[in-house]
Records
---
Amino acid sequence: MKFHTLNELEQKTNPETLDKARKLYEQESLTQKLRLLRGKYGFKQDDLNGFTQTAVSKLERRKDIKVSTLIEYLDGLGLGLEIVALPKDGNTEREVLLRM
């Protein structure tokens, strides 16, 4: 059986399908990262101020999180949030849209 490299598979995949897969991965990885951050800073689900254990559990499984909710969640961990706009053309100039 021949195995293909990731680059070979990406070249064979429809660009729209690849873009959807990347977006889905980013959404899934966000929820994983939130759980990891909470654990890294030593918080249990019921330790976050302003959130019940059930609310934290639901938040960490959501595919779509409001920015305001994300700010509150991170604030409960003692963290802030920065949202940066990046040009898709490869330009390295970044525009900070929000820093909380």
---
Amino acid sequence: MPTMTDAPVPRLRYVSDDELPEDLRNRRDPVTRVFGHHPELLKAWNEWYRPLIRDNALPARLKEIVRMRVAQLNACSF
């Protein structure tokens, strides 16, 4: 049975300014560059993600442990 590390690593393409709605152009953050071509998806992501990160729903130490584990499970190179 193949493991997660045996699978090819998918790469997400960042959208260009031309592909973004005008109000999102010139933003360089990765989330906007991946989800920005679909404004409803970007809005839904922010509504889910923002409270976890900015509203201290989880302690900072736990968030970092989760980030590291997710990266490890996905063979994230950064």
---
Amino acid sequence: MLAAALVTGAVLLHLYWPFTEAAVRRELGNAASAEVSFGRFHEKYFPPGCVADGVVIKKSGASVPLITVGRLVIRSNIFGLLHHHVSLLRAEGAKVNWQHVATDSESHSKPTIIDKLVADDATLEVPRSSPDGPLRFVFHKFEVGNLRGQGQSSFAAEFDNPLPHGLLRVSGHFGPWNDSQPTKTALDGNYSLEHADLGVFHSIAGFVSSTGRFSGMFDHIEVQGQTSTPELQVTSTHHGLPLQTDFSALVVGPSGDVFLRTVKAQFGRDELDAHGSIARGGDRRRVGNIDIQCDNGRIEDTFYPFIHSPKPALIGKVKFRMHVMIPPDKEKFVKKITLQSTFQIDDAQFTHPETQLRLSKIAETPKQQNPDIAIPAQFQGQVSLKDGIARFSELKVQDQGATAAFRGNFDLTDQRVNMRGQLKTEASLTKATHGIKSVFAKVVEPFFKKKPHETVVPVKIGGTYSHPQFGLDLSEKM
């Protein structure tokens, strides 16, 4: 009887042994809806399983394999043999090419449950239309538990993130698996990004770190997190400031588009609220569209990253509303960024000694020994930026004794100023000792001698941001 049972068991084991070369090839092919080939194949009986070398999984009609594996190790046990169960699947030297190829057919066979899938030192390549080639994700560690089993599966990965390049760790759960709509499978987890190099974006530099949580479905992931950048620098000026953010965002899985629901940021001393998107447009290029609001900031911090001078020429409290569009071009940041903004600067003062003295000392009275050099002004206006040129459709400057209204341009690449407008004052410019009117007093004094009761004067500002030149606009009729 015992001998008969052993013979019967051996026959059944031979008939239903799941680790033959044909059976494993068929199982892998059904799971990937692809054709499978092996370089070499070895069956293992203690413990039950197999080893396959030179594994190639390729979609029908594809030019490159979907997956290649240097060595595939599969292990099971007696329980697993009876219940379509694998205790370990280890893929050594795996390389995955992410291709959006439709599934050719659906498998109606019972899925094999994998207790643990390990694919350390694997590479995921995502094709893209770029001279830099595909995006490469290099996984130092990758593990999935309870794959294709009942309930949730666990995952943990540590890999090099390509854009921006840094070490990314993720862990969490997904499932139960949605067979009819896999992208609707639920997932949640945590992430951390360490020392990611922003230099890959060409126009900016710095290193960002981030931590947070995510949840949702594979095609619709909600993310909440924080970022820290000790110095976010504009490469054309080599000026930067620290940036801290708290954010909530939606990531659309299939496209990788990001929609920023809320962003609370601290950029230098500017307190910012933002929302927007980093998504593909009609031309399939990924573009950043961001709306930014600042109710409490400093103009010296707002301008500093974009100017070449060692210190800002203007200081003061700033408020602004701004829409920013950043295309993926490799041009300098100040050349490719476009924006529209309204702004207001309070308690404004020039920091350059020569400029500030001109605001207080031009045409001073003989008895005045210590003129006040700290008369603040208020700026407000509307500006648009394109191709590195800021175009002011409106710029008003006001202090205690005068008001000036300008229109014109400011070139961010060479810092040149070209503004024209009108100066209004209630008192004679020849007596000006401080404020806006003192800036123009000496150059327009002859005009006031001819027309002493005139209160509106055409003026202009030229020179550079750091060394502005104030004068009478002779192109205007007087």
---
Amino acid sequence: MPNEKIEHKKYFEDQFDDEEVLFVFHKHPVVMRKGLVVAMFGPLIGILPAFIKPELGLSVFFMGLGIGCLLGLILFSPSWIGWHFSVFIVTDQRFIQITQKGLFHRAVADLSLNQIQSVNYVISGLQETLLSFGTINMQTYVGDLVIHYVHHPARVQKKLLSILRQEGVSVAQYPVIQNIENEEEAEAQEA
């Protein structure tokens, strides 16, 4: 029985057989705001014929409104697809960033948990404060990974750090010097 492998449920295509998904998060829905603004032009364009020629009647108005709403959904769909299929996955072995842009562009970044040195977050400005989103900064051995528009970045950072601690990954802690006088005294004693 010790040679048996534990099979975990597969949540994504590239998941290893012995890998367990611990945490999944998306960006804040605010990333879809441009698509939503563009989508609002759909119903506006749909009712234009009834607005220009009111004698066409209400049937043309409602038909144009329905067609305009369909056009709006079509215009909004690339933005929604980009948000919905862009996902961040933390497993017991690695951190995976999947970024979808439109229908035909997908980028995947795969990072071992052992490569993560620190996880920090920044919330700056009125909009980020009111809508509860911000930026997560991960310092790694291979460079910095910056994730913008993270929903509740403090919670995400806390969860990431608890997963790193749970998996035995030590995040480098630097000693805090309380004041300059203590530092100068230590230097004088060494000399």
